[in-house]
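Researcher: Here's my situation. A collaborator sent me these components and asked whether they could plausibly form a single complex. I don't have experimental data yet, so a predicted model of the whole assembly would be a useful starting point for our discussion.
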Amino acid sequence: MGLKTGREYIDSLRAWGLEAQVMGQAVRDLPGHPLISPSLRAVAATYDCAHDEATRALFRVVSPLADQEVNRFTHMHGSPEELISKVKMLRHCGGLTGCCFQRCAGMDAANAVFNTTFEIDRERGTEYHRRFRDFWAQVQRADQVAAGCMTDPKGDRSKRPTEQADLDLFLRVVERKSDGVIVRGAKLHQTGMVNSHQIIVLPTMSLRQGEEDFAVCFGLPTNAPGVHFIYGRQASDTRKLEGDGLDVGNPVFGGQEVMTVFDDVFVPQERIFLNGEVEFCGRLVERFAAYHRQSYGGCKVGVGDVLIGATALIARMNGVDRASHVRDKIVEMIHLNETLFACGLAAAALGRATPAGGCEADLLLANVCKLNVTRFPYEIARLATDVAGGLLGTMPPARALDDPVTGPYIRKYLAAAEGVEVVDRMKVLRLIENLVAGAGSVAYLIESVHGAGPPQAQRIMIGRQAGLEAKMARVRRLLKLS
Amino acid sequence: MGLKTGREYIDSLRAWGLEAQVMGQAVRDLPGHPLISPSLRAVAATYDCAHDEATRALFRVVSPLADQEVNRFTHMHGSPEELISKVKMLRHCGGLTGCCFQRCAGMDAANAVFNTTFEIDRERGTEYHRRFRDFWAQVQRADQVAAGCMTDPKGDRSKRPTEQADLDLFLRVVERKSDGVIVRGAKLHQTGMVNSHQIIVLPTMSLRQGEEDFAVCFGLPTNAPGVHFIYGRQASDTRKLEGDGLDVGNPVFGGQEVMTVFDDVFVPQERIFLNGEVEFCGRLVERFAAYHRQSYGGCKVGVGDVLIGATALIARMNGVDRASHVRDKIVEMIHLNETLFACGLAAAALGRATPAGGCEADLLLANVCKLNVTRFPYEIARLATDVAGGLLGTMPPARALDDPVTGPYIRKYLAAAEGVEVVDRMKVLRLIENLVAGAGSVAYLIESVHGAGPPQAQRIMIGRQAGLEAKMARVRRLLKLS
Amino acid sequence: MGLKTGREYIDSLRAWGLEAQVMGQAVRDLPGHPLISPSLRAVAATYDCAHDEATRALFRVVSPLADQEVNRFTHMHGSPEELISKVKMLRHCGGLTGCCFQRCAGMDAANAVFNTTFEIDRERGTEYHRRFRDFWAQVQRADQVAAGCMTDPKGDRSKRPTEQADLDLFLRVVERKSDGVIVRGAKLHQTGMVNSHQIIVLPTMSLRQGEEDFAVCFGLPTNAPGVHFIYGRQASDTRKLEGDGLDVGNPVFGGQEVMTVFDDVFVPQERIFLNGEVEFCGRLVERFAAYHRQSYGGCKVGVGDVLIGATALIARMNGVDRASHVRDKIVEMIHLNETLFACGLAAAALGRATPAGGCEADLLLANVCKLNVTRFPYEIARLATDVAGGLLGTMPPARALDDPVTGPYIRKYLAAAEGVEVVDRMKVLRLIENLVAGAGSVAYLIESVHGAGPPQAQRIMIGRQAGLEAKMARVRRLLKLS
Amino acid sequence: MGLKTGREYIDSLRAWGLEAQVMGQAVRDLPGHPLISPSLRAVAATYDCAHDEATRALFRVVSPLADQEVNRFTHMHGSPEELISKVKMLRHCGGLTGCCFQRCAGMDAANAVFNTTFEIDRERGTEYHRRFRDFWAQVQRADQVAAGCMTDPKGDRSKRPTEQADLDLFLRVVERKSDGVIVRGAKLHQTGMVNSHQIIVLPTMSLRQGEEDFAVCFGLPTNAPGVHFIYGRQASDTRKLEGDGLDVGNPVFGGQEVMTVFDDVFVPQERIFLNGEVEFCGRLVERFAAYHRQSYGGCKVGVGDVLIGATALIARMNGVDRASHVRDKIVEMIHLNETLFACGLAAAALGRATPAGGCEADLLLANVCKLNVTRFPYEIARLATDVAGGLLGTMPPARALDDPVTGPYIRKYLAAAEGVEVVDRMKVLRLIENLVAGAGSVAYLIESVHGAGPPQAQRIMIGRQAGLEAKMARVRRLLKLS
């Protein structure tokens, strides 16, 4: 079977039969729901790019696992060059959709599980890696989307899993059976969850002896019994329900965040990739973090490209694109955006071969990448707001355009540089609003802070990976200290 | 008649009979409309504070103009101390409402007109100042809200008013009559417009010879014939229509932005405060800017207080308030917020007496104040997002709480530190969301950039006011240059 | 006796007979030593300004203590207005000298002791305040300079005074006698010490029970037996010894830092202002910090004025003063500099009357002021470096101008805009170098970080003073939390 | 002949017989002069590293040009991997020496000339590339240092070369002869010049028709007749003359900046690589800039390593290395430093093959790299200053340690954490001072701003290279604009 097109992907998802709770109501036709369809279209774009002539080479790669050409989003990266291609692919998708396209977390989780299970098996004689290879080859052949599920609710953050008032606040094994385990818990912030065919669950952090029940990693189809989806809200989300007006900002694409509940869900033995080996949780988590933090140097840069393009466009429409301060602000936006890209590329360029035959991103630089992502998009958004003007926060609704009294007023008074259609200008402003203070800001700002872990998580890793003792030793030698 | 209470203010507004186009529909009962009522409540708070024992002294002042005690929001400030009181009052209101309370622009415009008309009369023998005093004493006695209207649509920003394809893109006098003038045009970004009884229209910028028709300043009741209001959209605005759920973020208060069209509106002679004297436009505009830019060192600081308080609260609810990095981030938020306050205070402390008997804010420091306001709230918002966590962008809707399946899941899995009600936690998160990526961000972020003029406007003034030649001369002397 | 002139001050200092260890040698004629004379001239400028017609009013004030007109540098400030005058005076001095003029720490220490001793006496029945008034009235009448001495060496910073291997690492009373005490220890970073007639010693931090020996505050003439001065090095300090070449950067003025050792020094009873009352140390220290941190919003702003002026001048000399990016950078420098000034003014404007009849700077805003001072000068210096050009780091020495071969080359190839003397251009570049990477950077950069306490000290105070609980309570009310 | 050792390099340089004007005096034994020897040792380190087992592989590479193993500092890079190796090599050298090691500009200039001359020859039928290959193969075989010379004095920066009052303010051909040309002019800011055997001169900027005389590129031995060197000053430079005291900061290594005058120097035909082809100047200059701006992502990062190591060490010596704010500051320093490294690596990873068989750094990312270098070192230096403490600006001189009175005081009162030698602590402080406000700051701060072109030069390139039109087109498509 060849790689799916976007349309085939959407069909496959429709056939998958997921149900979710959306805005307080149970919804069965998820692909048909106007709140959700933009996020499906964003995922579908990752499929179509593998068929588009211009991007086909970037999105396809031969996988030794499935022994066939696969979509790079399901690939186990094997070299620094392939990690670089990943970053380029992600940037392309961000620039195409102007939003989070939701297919990275699963890719990054799979790579982490692939490499780490190999090492567990080697050290423990388990067969997790074999199981994962089987599981993943299926995903590759079926060209499916997998959601990476990591973040537990965590309850009182000052307490360990076993100290919580409710033990379920960290997902855990509540029963071990001969043919599998029963798990209970929840995962928050699941990007793209109800657009996915498969789930990969990982522990949320390093674990210690005594916390074995929480040390569980597994794969599961999203339509498995006992899995519940509660669709999250985003700023201005209901504009997607307002019909085809331009107020939605991004007219085609959007993101998706879900809270996923595992209410005593059975996981068969063959899908379990970690089960109680607490000492490997840290490695698994850090590796996922490294892959995923590096990814942010691609996807957010692509969204940044859209915001920069829109800002340059509105400047031209307003007749100020030649003003030196406007040019300077746009250069600054580019500079910040490309710095993020550079960090993603560099973490790839220093990628290291793993025992499993994969390639992992440089841990230090991947964290540096993500820490910059927690900062620069805010400054880019601020500059976009500056250049775009106050209409971002005050513009009349699209509906007012249809009104016989107000429509003509709006067309008359929002006219700008010669030759610019007022409605086009409004569209560009709404797209910028979407990214700086609307639905798109969830991915571009909030997720930039918290996705793949919050800033402090990166700082801790940076502190650990920096080789501070070696730097001090070097100074001691230079100064010939006693 | 004593000062109005909030309720009396709302009643007076209802009686005023305004109509506006809201989300594509003509609305007559504005105070009763759920999109608009939060913004009325915010204005009402500025009335109630003049009755509240704790704040009465700060909000009341005796005006020589009306010869009675007035609400400070209608006061012509007479000393640095009174300008300091203004900043404190604005900070209080921001902290009380957590939003833009919409009564500053009118106050600041009135002070600018008051002082500048005196000087025009003195130099030109006009009687603008007398007219304005009469007009304003009425406003004070009736304890009314006036909206300051400045920003013209401006069309192609690379062109002067007379060069625009449509001359109406800058508001202008289209006919001069014996008893007044007819004006045509629009004003954008009108904060609190349909909450106001009166309008003060000012020119949008310095003007030159040949641009006399655009050099017009006047007062007018908001219910004057020919004035049309088109209500602007804000991020997540329709959450206000969703009933009493907590998703609205700020459960009581909100802001308002309006596009106001003047479709051949008659302005009687007695209400005209400038009419063609182009050479005074710059002074009027700069003075308004100085008052208004200084105001931002109060109101936004108050909103910052709310965001800081909410951030500290969510940290405690999450059990991380003792973590050193969290404390450090909150200290940083405070530091930035207080720096803004310091700038507002300093512009007051160096206030200068005017010939009219008023006191004007220091022009340089008022611009410095506002330029900082265009920056720090973004960093404060970023830090709030960091501390608050990813739920800001992924939390299920309030409605899901009522569902028998999802409600219990949410209550179970969003539990945090002991003793914290899940719904309380959700409320705090929604308030933060409101300010960083929702309706509140229009005032806290977008308006912080563009209100009272965009950053570049402040930079130009700072460059002009800095006394650069004197600094160079000082260096020349120190170095004994030839 | 009237207020001293600069010359009279220098004469008085010469007569004072101090000796210091300078660059490894004992020096007796301090005013005549070329490393030291620039710092004396800077102090002398604070005297001359009290005679200069243009600044006389700002530098003179009637002191109730001495019941006569005094130099404001010896004044006990009595109102917010006087604190504002202090900031203006300090900015003037910084702008005049382009360096630290070394007379603030004593002024600020005196104000802290003045106000705090009053409260100790009231609560403890001691007579410290009376003693201090007597001491200080003498200083005022003799128009002397007092050095404020606070920073103890502190040894291992993770340990309390009594836990140090050497108890003397915090200055302490080693013997109590009927007529006074013997103290031992050292004070570091003493700005202007060997330019001073008097010393005011304060404890370095809050102290606890059991640390009474370290809780000592006193006044002493600098020429008291047992006091030793070790002159500190500064970057490029020996350029002052190179003759009258322009490489020194600042041709007239400079700063001074000293390590002061108290080797069993006797302090008579009448000069002791605190002796074991550990519970007042925190208040004394915080108060001094507040006065001194507010001062930084004046002095460093003045030095910033010089750096901005020099940068504007070199831009003009290079022919780039019209380039938009250069203008923009200079505006940014001004903006940052004025923000510091605003913070200093605001801490004054919210000054509070003390029981002793003084006025203390707002503790929160004074700390905010200083925290900004630990940041902005670095950015100002970076921008100055950017505009000035690479010659800052590569320019030939002044001596090369005299060489018959190289002199003409330098004059030929360092020519810039028409009409600019090469030597003038070199002078301006050397002045900038002095401030960004030379002797002046000690005061403008390093001292901006550490003077009046390092950033973390300010952060702790900001955290404490911010009223965080009140902000949270406000949010609870707004959200009607359970 | 094998690759030189550091000692052999110094010997070769001594034999080269250069003379320079140093501090106003003609100096013939440059390697023996204490102001200059530290900079020779830094260059020598780049030689020794090619022999050190630990770094040999990184510093050696087989050159097709010379058909032998060469020091990578003389290599024409042939692939992204080799550009990555370059960055790693430069970081290593920076970390070893703690200063600018002065061998990059020549390497980067050579690569630019190598690639560009190939294209000129192809388009113009010239033989510049052949000449350059011959020249450079000699340099490689002799393992020599070449200085890249680019920056002309430029006089009045608002004028073109031909508009200057003195035409020599841009280096130019003053006479064309059958066997070569005579050039006149100067080059400023020549890093490592009098440590070099060869000079490569490039034009300073893009040139136009009519400016052919300035479009000249050539190679020349540094000891050619008519070339004059004027040694530049650095902050605190004369501490190198003070003997073996620790005040010098960096006890072994240092940098060097020179003004080089070409007083009618003859350049033989075989050494001319560009002669009047103005249309290639831009390409040559941009290419050099790209190589050199990428290099800054290596060398400055290495110096940053030293500063970070020294900061961590002084924190430990002071007993504060466990304080959370100190750890946080050090993490921030690392983060910024690694971001610079990431940019250098990324510009390499996206390197492109050139027609000449070389590989050029990505132009956009190389400029992004350098623009970050103009910023982050200042923040790193500020944080280092913060952690290190006020002694950076106030510490007594090393000489005072020998004094029988002050020596014991210093040893007593500068004691810190247990087991720390006071002199060791002083050495670390002096090293930090060296980098933040001393001789080292010339390379770490000033050169970080101006080396390889000032920030505005990078901004212009970033604006040009960003593909802004393509970004706008993408937005147009997404929004289906009319």
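Model: Some features of this prediction you could bring to your collaborator: The CA atoms of residues 198 and 221 of chain C lie 4 Å apart. The radius of gyration of chain C is 23 Å.
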